[in-house]
Amino acid sequence: MTTVHAAVAEVLAGHGQALFGVLGDANMQYVADFINGGGSYIGAIDERGAVMMAIGYARRLHRVGVVTVTHGPGLTNTLTSLVEAVRSRTPLVLLTGDTPPVPDYVQLLDVGAAVAPTGAHYRRVVAAETVADELSAALRRAQADRLPVVLDIPFHLLSREVILPRRPGPIPERQAVRPDPDALDEALGIIASASRPVVLAGRGAALCDAREPLLALAHALGAPVATTLLGRDLFRGDPCDLGVLGTVSHDIAIETVGASDCVIAFGAGLNQYTTAHGWLADGRAVVHVDDDQGRLDRYTPVTAGIVGDAAVVARAMTEQLEAAGHSPSGFRSPALADRLAARDPRADFTDASTTEFLDARTAMIELDEILPADRVIVSDVGRYVIAPWKYLHVPEPLSFTHTAAFGSIGLGIAAGVGASAADRTRPTVVIAGDGGAMMGLIEFTTAVREKLPLVVIVVNDRCYGAEWAQMEKYGIDPALSLIPWPSFETMASAFGGHGLTVRTAGDLKRIPDLIAEGKLPLMVDLHIDPAVVIGDIR
């Protein structure tokens, strides 16, 4: 026999799960059991941050993230991050618990009702003897549905005795889905008749290692390749890689896709940003491949849809095209490759740097060159993001994520802490605006405590930048949005980390030395001018 709280810890340990959280009455017993049993636990300062750490961990490792908080306000503090997990399709289990059965208990809350608007699944443990099975089922459902599951383990059950749970089996990976032959034939008919095709890959394609099958298909079709933002750099190194497609595309990508007559998208959501508000589907055929039927036609009307694994479908398409003697088009041309190779990103804009401010676009191009090539990038969201989203690269797509799915600033630092905890072998670089950094700053102390190789670049325009732009639009003095923040360099040092203030490109060049010297975690206060128009992703 054992207790419910010991059973919870044993199931988590059996699944090999790391655990993030904030302690309270609803969870401190099983967290203690988990730690005492050798489990990896990282305690956050705030519940919103704890969930974001689990999200960063899950997205970096492509596995279920697990986080635990107490009841009442412990749960309500997670709701913004929980919606972020739902909208980003992150597999996550959030453990909480109903309050003690005491009338008018101060933290009393209807857990199911609180969770419902977020879109997360909700499960409640109703009997002590089912807790192990319920927790294992929650982990499996989160993985299968790519969504968070909130598991309510009521406080009054924690000390009850149960039979020692059986050793849990591994969480099954999603299996490759083979396409329906008729759907494949329909799509191939459209693709084979195209004279200017483009192959587009999203994060779903990266998750199933589809780079080589997709490049083989692109060569068979004579098609340039491109990615979504979350699939970024899947094709890096290919001479006809157009980069990220959508509202952050460069001019050659826009021109090339504009001239295309067919886009074949694999594992891509085709949302309004990837499609540039529908432009992608305007006047050209769109073939959409995804292993989730619910994703087809969700955001963008498509000419043909195929349910299947990106790598499996790409191989099947290539085999059938070759068997039919299909000749590649000339759209994937040496001339296009030469233009892409000669492209200078600095030609996209006029550098607005001064002795007081560095242009954010110039800064990101410089950072792309001087940061360690083997890195993880985590982006918060804000007006500045078009600069890192255009100019910062990663070694492969799973080394990049953002916290923009719900449009909330302030989530990036905590997500970066989770991603860094998942992979301590290389630096994780968080790009955050000054407002978002101030919101999430407290979790920098978690990075300090855990001695994580984290670098936080604060793009600091001394205001809420989007509001500056909107106030100008409405004829209101934008200076009203200015906020005299404290020095981020000073705050980083006060928290036990390291700081650097950057106003010029020369100042940026100190970052590699600080990383090499182990001056981590590091917070870089990058001063930019709020009056400089960086661009817009809307």
UniProtKB/TrEMBL annotation:
Residues 184-316 form the Thiamine pyrophosphate enzyme central domain. CDD domains: TPP_enzymes, TPP_PYR_POX_like. Residues 3-100 form the Thiamine pyrophosphate enzyme N-terminal TPP-binding domain. It comes from the Bacteria. Residues 380-524 form the Thiamine pyrophosphate enzyme TPP-binding domain. Keywords: Thiamine pyrophosphate. SUPFAM superfamilies: DHS-like NAD/FAD-binding domain (SSF52467), Thiamin diphosphate-binding fold (THDP-binding) (SSF52518). InterPro entries: DHS-like_NAD/FAD-binding_dom, THDP-binding, Thiamin_PyroP_enz_cen_dom, Thiamin_PyroP_enz_TPP-bd_dom, TPP_enz, TPP_enzyme_TPP-bd. Belongs to the TPP enzyme family. PANTHER family: ACETOLACTATE SYNTHASE CATALYTIC SUBUNIT, MITOCHONDRIAL (PTHR18968:SF13), THIAMINE PYROPHOSPHATE ENZYMES (PTHR18968). This is Thiamine pyrophosphate-binding protein.
